[in-house]
Amino acid sequence: MLSVVCQQSDLYEMVQIVGRGVTGRSSLPVLNNIYLEAGDDSLRLLSTDMEYLTIDGKIDAQVEEEGAITIGARILGEVAGALGEGDVHLETQTSEGGQANAVRISSGVASYSINALPADEFPVPPSVEEGTALSIPQNLLREVIQQTVFAASADETRPILTGALFSIKPEGLEVVATDTYRLVLRKVELETGIAQPCQAIVSARALNELARVLSPVSDEAVEVILSERQIEFRLPDLKLGSRLIEGEFPKYEKVIPTSHEKEILCEVSELQTALRRVLIVARDDANRVVFRGKQSQLQLSAKSSDVGEAGETIGAELQGDDIEIAFNARYILEMLGVCPSERVVIRLSGPLNPGIIVPDGRDDYIYVVMPMQIM
Amino acid sequence: MNLTKPAAGSIMEPDMERQIIHVDMDAFYAAIEQRDNPDLRGKPVVVGGDPQGRGVVSAASYEARRYGIHSAMPCAEARRRCPQAVFLPVNMRKYRQVSRQVMEILGAYTPLVEQISVDEAFMDVTGSRRLFGSAEQIARQIKRRIKQELGLTASVGVGPNKFIAKLASECQKPDGLVIVRADQVEEFLRDLPVSQLWGVGEATARRLQRLGISTVGQLAQLSPELLCEQFGATGKLLYDLAHGKDERPVAPRSTRKSCSAEMTFAEDTSNAALLRRTLLALSEDVGRRLRAANLQGRTITLKLRFSDFTTITRSTTLPEPVNGDEQIYQAAAAMMTRRLLHGKLVRLVGVRVSGFDSCAQLSLFGNEQSSSAAVDRTIDEIRRRFGKRSIQRGTLVEDDSGPPRRAKSSYPPAEAKKRNGGR
Questions:
Q1: Is the pTM of this model over 0.90?
Q2: Range of B318's domain?
Q3: CA-CA distance, B355 to A373, in Å (whole number)?
Q4: What is the CATH number of domain A3-121?
Q5: Is the minimum CB–CB distance between B84 and chain A shorter than 8 Å?
Q6: Which residues contact B252 (CB under 8 A, 6 or more apart)?
Q7: CATH code of B235's domain
C-alpha cells in the first residue's frame, strides 16, 4: 500500500504538468485519473490518453511504503494547489475487502480522503524501448517547436497535417509543419551525428505540451527516442511520449519555391503593428490584407463591404518590380510572432504564387505562405 | 406598379431609375471567322459539327440564316438547306479570347458586368452616367469600340432592368440599338408574344393560349390572383414580367454562388449506367469551370427530373471544398441511389457545386495532394489546346455510345442553348 511524503510545491507543479495529459473526454474513466506510484525514493505521476500523449513524471519523496493507486487528475490538482507549503502525506486507504479505494492526503491540519481507483485498472501506456536517439538542448527544442507547430492544421479529418514532420538526416534535424495554406521549415544542426535517416510525424498537441515544460533558458539536453510507432522526449524527471501519426506527409520540398522575382525587407515590429491595425477591418473579409510594394514603401490595406476600409504604409526596402498580393494577415502575424530576427525578408514572384518569409540573415528558417485572391 | 422604383444602393439620387444594358454579339462565332478570313465575308458560314457533318450548328452567319439555318439545327439539315455554305469547326479558344476582349471593353464603363455566356453580358450603368454620359451614349460608345477595335458588331438593348434590356437587344439584330425608357415599357411589351417572356416555355405558353392569352399586353390584364391560381409560384413571376418588372441585380462573376451543369436526355431513361456516365460528364464540365475560375465548393447537389416533370434535388456538404471531377462525381453519384431512382424514367440529370470558399485562400499543394487532381489539370490543358472532345474518360466511351446524348445540342453548347434570358 502506497504511503509517501513529498513537498507540496513539487507535487503541485508535477500534477499541473502531468494533468495536461488527461483529456477529460476519455471513454475509459480511469484515464481521467493520474497514476501514482511510490518507490525508489520518488513518487511517479503518470497520465495517458493511450493515443497521442503520455506524460510520465517523477518527484522526490520519502517512501514509507511502496505501492500504486490512481486518483482523479482534476481533484488532485485542486487539493495539491490548496494545501500550504510543506510536507504532504499521501496514503492509500483500503475498503473492508482489502481493495484500495481512496487516498488520504494530509498536510498540517488539512486532511482529505479522495476516492480512487486501483492501479491495476490503469492501462499500460505505450512506451519506447529502443530506437533512433538524438539529443537536443531544451531551449533549442522549445524554440523549434514554437517556430513550427503553429502552422500545423487543426482539422482532425486530415490527421497527417495535425502533426509536425521530424526528419532526421545525417546533417541534422528538419521540422516541417503545414496546413496546406502555409508551410514552415526549420533546420537544426545537431552535434551528435545520426547514422540512419528517418522521419516521423509528431502530434502538434504533444509538441505543444512538451514546449510548455521545456525551459526557455536551460541548454540541458533532451533525449529524443524514436521508434517505429512512438516517440519519447526524455528529461531528467519527466518523459513525454506520443504515438506517431501514421501516413505520408505531403511532399513539402516541391512546394518551397527556389527562386523569386521581388523582395521586400522590413522591420518585424513595424509590420506586426501595422497588420494588427489593418486586421480590425480585414477580420470581416477572411483576414485578407493586400500588400502593395512600391518604391521604398509597403502599403497594407483591407476592405470589407460591411465594415469599411483600413490602410497603413510602412517603410521597406524593395527589390524588383512593384507588386500587389493579398495574404491572410493571421498567417503572417503568427510567423512574425515567433520570428527570431528583427527584420524579415518577404520574397515574392506573382500575386498567385507562394510567398516566402525568412528572418533576415538566417537560412535555417523558411515560411512559405500562399496568397489569397485579390477580389 | 412602380416601374421607376430606385435600385438598392442609389441613395444619392433617390429617384434614379436603374439603367441596364444588354450587349449581345451578332452571330458571334461566324462573325469572328468572317472577320479573320475575308474570303468568307458575304457568304453563308456555318460554325459547328465535325468534318463528317455530324453534330449541330453552333452559329450561323446572317447570310446562312437566310436559308433557314439556325443554332442547334443538325449540321446535316443545314447542309441540305444550303449546300454551298462554308462549314467550319468550332474554335472555342479563339472565341473565348475575343470574348475577353469584348468584356474588357464593357468593364471600362462599370465593374458591374455580368457575363452570361461567351457572347453576351448585362451591365448596370446606373452609377456610370456621370462619368460616361447617359446609358444611350454609353451603349453607342460600346458599339463603336467593338466595331473599331474588334471588327465585330453587337446588338445592344437599354432598359430599366435586365428583362427589358435583353428583349430590347433582340429587337433589331444585327447591329441594333434599342432603348426602352421606363415610361415606354408597357407599350414595348404590349404586342410581344407571351413566349418571349423569360421562363415561359412551351407548356406555359399552351396553357396561356387556352386562356385566350397570346400577347404580353393581354397577359398584363390578368389579375395576380388569377395567375397565381392558375400557375402557382410562376404566376407571380408572369405577372411581374408582364408589367415589365424585374428586380434581379446585375451580378458580376466574382459574386457567383454556384456552378452547375445539367442535361436533358434525347430519350427518357432509367438506365443506371447511362445516368452515372452522364453524371460523370456533367461533373467534368462543372469541375473544369470551377478550376478555370479558381473556385471550389463544399456543397454538391444532384438534380433529377423524371418523365412526369417532377423534379427532386439532393444535397450533401463535404468536409472540405472541392473542384475535382472525381470528387464532384463521387458525391453526386452517392446520392443517386436506387431508392431515389425507383426505376422511374429520368428526363434530366444535373449536378451543382455551391458553398464556395469565399476567402479564396490558395492552397500550397493545391491539387497536388491527389493524383486525380493532376489528371484533372492535365485534361483541362489538353482540352484547352485541342478542344473539348479531344480527350475522354474511358467510362464515357466504353460502349460505343460515346458521351451521353443531349436532347437538342451537343458539345460545344450551341449559342441558342444559352439564350434563355440569363440566370
A1: no
A2: 258-410
A3: 17
A4: 3.10.150.10
A5: no
A6: B111, B112, B113, B114
A7: 1.10.150.20
